[in-house]
Amino acid sequence: VKFMLGLFDNPYHANYDYSKFASPESAELSFQSALETVVLLKNDDGVLPLSKNVKVLVTGPTANTMFSLNGGWNRTWQGNDPKWDLEENKKTVLEAIQDKIGAGNVTYAEGSGFHAIANLPQTVQAAARADVIIVCLGENSYAETPGDIDDLDIGSAQRQLVDALAKTGKPIIGLMIQGRPRLINGMDTKLKAILTANLPGSEGGRAIAEILFGDYNPNGKLPYTYSR
User: Which residue, of 133, 181, 186, 209, has the greatest Cβ tally within 10 A?
Assistant: First the structure.
């Protein structure tokens, strides 16, 4: 059927046929696509959008990595080899927030990895000095069999992070960066707002910052009800 459709009449194209590859126009289209895929799942008391004058703690395993924004098959099979993480002028969520409101208004602490707690006491101390917490949850990049799981739960480490932050009494914005809807039942009640960005790509950090601070109104929609 592929031969009948003519798909092999000219199977190979020279690279100069793709003149807009990695061009500013291509990046802008990627940015616009990322803006339109972010979905607002919850916004209690209108906590979003945030003021650009707030002191923010950014934490969580997807806060400062391009891997989770891009997902698998990004330069390498699993998309998580730092050797090839060479995207100039592309921003992680943390870097995009720093650009948006100024680095002096942003504190970063890892809090947890995907499967293990990291510097949790220091993260809680930093939260006490912030006006609002942005906790970046989700999963690492993956493809095919290495990404297979038999449980959609977000995992105990990320749950412990949210539990500890909730005890500070500070409003928490939950940001989900993931290739599938990881379950957050029990956590959802501790988050004042929840955004799911899915896998927004290399312009995703910039798009997320636009939405968090009110420069773009989130208008993405899901074809299903997100499972708590």
Answer: 133
